[in-house]
Design a protein that fits this description.
The protein is α/β, with parallel strands linked by helices and 352 residues long. The protein has helices at residues 38-45, 93-96, 129-132, 142-145, 148-161, 177-188, 201-209, 223-230, 246-255, 299-310, 330-339, and strands at 2-8, 11-16, 27-34, 55-56, 61-68, 80-83, 124-126, 134-135, 169-173, 193-198, 214-217, 236-241, 256-264, 288-292, 320-325, 346-350. 27% of the residues lie in helices and 24% in strands. The protein starts with a strand and ends with a strand. Bound molecules: nicotinamide-adenine-dinucleotide and zinc ion.
Length: 352
């Protein structure tokens, strides 16, 4: 079978591989729609997870089951499924501790395009199908459905990590596709006022549609000053970080009130340390909590997000700015994600 792969750090290309075979609990899936992730770009061009050779890329897919192992009960060939980016080993101590994302070790619930071939192949392997796949209702269009495996779960997780409560004033820093889903997540968790920090008009417009009440342009000066000015010097209750760099942490710490939470889902790619401003962190006693997390995966999480889409509570297809058709266009969509033209939020490739 054919796949679009990371050949080594900085290099991508098409390769041939053996079609994978399922173990007793596993499934083989044919992708119906896929999307490249900013994390794929970090993986290839920044070596974010170290060297990889001839590893098929991609971890955002919906597909059709083509084969199942002897012990799989709830899925059969022909079923249309949502495949989470995170497919944990459910029989691990990390799962019992409540952190399935780290089943088997730090970030080890993330398998596709990390420790095994991803979803940009003609077929791909899913471990523990009954626990990791979710049925895709036929009413949900593929463009919307393929935003569920990563963009929705990650963006909403940012809002969950920030512990958003009814009426909170929230700031979402970075409104690419993940941050836009954090805005929607903050809105659904009951935020009162939502600042969205961005610069591109299209992203700002979509942020307002997802529930942002105020737009802060980080290109118009220090965002901490802008937030403090807009809140009469009080600051915000919660911050979600979905863009920016290591310095964004310091800004988040400065703009939140004592007794508050920061939820980070952003990839931090530089330096050995992250600075926390000592004084604004209450010299260590400010009850300003910092939470960073990998997105939740697995079947139940996907089913819950599918409900949000199915019952029209959230329309993730607003993220999709570029739609390609045909397997060969995976490369075009991937390179678009690398180049990030101004009008791009998320590209999707339809393979059905
Ligand atoms: P993106 O690059 O499309 O969006 C980030 C946005 O932040 C961009 O629009 C950028 O212009 C903006 N930005 C840059 N500097 C900023 C600043 N100083 N202040 C405010 N905004 C700024 O990326 P994305 O696809 O939305 O993903 C966001 C991050 O989440 C990436 O780092 C990605 O790797 C990571 N990610 C994490 C998980 C997870 O499980 N935790 C999953 C998927 C993606
Ligand atoms: Zn991703």
């Amino acid at each position: 079978m054919k796949g679009f792969a990371m050949l080594s750090i900085g290099k991508v290309g098409w390769i041939e591989k053996e079609k994978p075979a399922p173990g007793p609990f596993d499934a083989i899936v044919r992708p119906l729609a896929v999307a490249p992730c900013t994390s794929d770009i970090h993986t290839v061009f920044e070596g974010a997870i170290g060297e990889r050779h001839n590893m098929i890329l991609g971890h955002e897919a919906v597909g059709e089951v083509v084969e199942v192992g002897s012990e799989v009960k709830d899925f059969k060939p022909g079923d249309r499924v949502v495949v989470p980016a995170i497919t944990p080993d459910w029989r691990t101590s990390e799962v019992q501790r409540g952190y399935h994302q780290h089943s088997g070790g730090m970030l080890a619930g993330w398998k596709f395009s990390n420790v095994k071939d991803g979803v940009f192949g003609e077929f791909f392997h899913v471990n523990d199908a009954d626990m990791n796949l979710a049925h895709l209702p036929k009413e949900i269009p593929l463009e919307a459905a393929v935003m569920i495996p990563d963009m929705m779960t990650t963006g909403f997780h940012g809002a969950e990590l920030a512990n958003i409560k009814l009426g909170d004033t929230v700031c979402v820093i970075g409104i690419g596709p993940v941050g836009l889903m954090s805005v929607a997540g903050a809105n659904h968790l009951g935020a009162g006022r939502i600042f969205a920090v961005g610069s591109r008009k299209h992203c700002c417009d979509i942020a307002l549609e997802y529930g942002a009440t105020d737009i802060i342009n980080y290109k118009n000066g220090d965002i901490v000053e802008q937030i403090l000015k807009a809140t009469d010097g009080k600051g915000v209750d919660k911050v979600v970080i979905a863009g920016g760099d290591v310095h964004t942490f310091a800004q988040a710490v400065k703009m939140i009130k004592p007794g508050s939470d920061i939820g980070n889902v952003n990839y931090l790619g530089e330096g050995d340390n992250i600075d926390i401003p000592r004084s604004e962190w209450g010299v260590g006693m400010g009850h300003k909590h910092i939470h960073g997390g990998l997105c939740p995966g697995g079947r139940l999480r996907m089913e819950r997000l599918i409900d949000l889409v199915f019952y029209k509570r959230v329309d993730p297809s607003k993220l999709v700015t570029h739609v390609f058709r045909g397997f060969d266009n995976i490369e075009k969509a991937f390179m678009l994600m690398k180049d990030k033209p101004k009008d791009l939020i998320k590209p999707v490739v339809i393979l059905a």
